[in-house]
UniProtKB/TrEMBL annotation:
Transmembrane segments: none annotated. It comes from Frisingicoccus caecimuris. Residues 3-178 form the AAA domain. It catalyses: ATP + H2O = ADP + phosphate + H(+). This is Sporulation initiation inhibitor protein Soj. Signal peptide: none annotated.
């Protein structure tokens, strides 16, 4: 049975989408069958994997709120072995529409359970908020992976995120675990990045991935070409890092 990983942090711009795209693509490169679900109305994971978000007919919105089957929502990405359930701006209205629906926290889970067996990994990119879309992602998932940007306010909001995850575990998804945190946008030339890593390690009693994602301009460029980093520049430091992260993610499961 496949493992479902939510990439979440309500803080904006910390590298959730970059991690979703490139962890998914690196897992696929290692021969895994992967599905990436874009739960963010910004649709950046969708376009970053080579899918025109304004042309897709069925998105997460249709999956959650209309009588559309899961199969009809799955698109193939530019990367072999990597499928996508897309998103676009239409999803921004879903939050309000979801409120009055029964079982509103479990709509995604009901749909995704049907195809768990078709994939080794399902990676869900969450929006930068602890809203119903994020809650749906967390009730569907086995684990949450939290990207932390190496900047001064890295720890801000982290305790709130951990508290939310624990509440969801208590009330909605008893199996949910925090898989770990991964540092992103590390800049080895500054003391700040090093200090942030040390500070978070001291304050956070959680699994921290050994792999640290460096700040690498190729990672920022790749989405505008609709490609994950391993296709855009396979030898870049960003591609190497996400490959190592994918190996660690696979290892985590084997250690269970
Ligand atoms: N390791 C990196 N090196 C250089 N640039 C990066 C790196 N990771 C992310 N970026 C850039 O930083 C910006 C924010 O990254 P990203 O979109 O992945 O964050 P996010 O957490 O998904 O943001 P949001 O909260 O808006 O969804 C993007 O422009 C992205 O290209
Ligand atoms: Mg994002």
């Amino acid at each position: 049975m496949g493992r479902i990983i939510a990439i979440a942090n309500q803080k904006g711009g910390v590298g959730k989408t970059t991690t979703s795209i490139n962890l998914s693509a690196s897992l696929a490169e290692l021969g895994k069958k992967v599905l990436t679900i874009d739960m963010d109305p910004q649709g950046n994971t969708t376009s970053g994997l080579g899918i025109d978000k304004n042309q897709v007919e069925n998105t997460v919105y249709e999956l959650l709120l209309e009588e559309v089957s899961t199969d009809e929502c799955i698109y193939t990405s530019v990367m072999e072995g990597l499928d996508v359930i897309a998103s676009n701006i239409n999803l921004s209205g879903a939050e309000v529409e979801l409120i009055s629906i029964e079982n509103k926290e479990f709509l995604l889970k009901e749909k995704i359970n049907l195809l768990r067996d078709n994939y080794d990994y399902i990676v869900i990119d969450c929006p930068p908020s602890l809203n119903l879309l994020t809650i749906n992602a967390m009730t569907t998932s086995d684990t949450v992976l939290v990207p932390i940007q190496c900047e001064y306010y890295a720890l801000e909001g982290l305790s709130q995120l951990i508290h939310t995850i624990e509440l969801i575990k208590e009330r909605l998804n008893p199996d949910l675990e925090i898989e770990g945190v991964v540092f992103t946008m590390f800049d080895g030339r500054t003391n700040l990045s090093l200090q942030v890593v040390e500070n978070v390690k001291e304050n956070l009693n959680r699994n921290i991935y050994k792999t640290i994602i460096p700040r690498n301009v190729r990672l920022a460029e790749a989405p505008s070409y609709g490609m994950p980093i391993n296709m855009y520049d396979t030898r870049s430091s960003g591609a190497e890092a996400y490959r190592l992260l994918a190996e660690e993610v696979i290892q985590y499961q084997m250690n269970k």
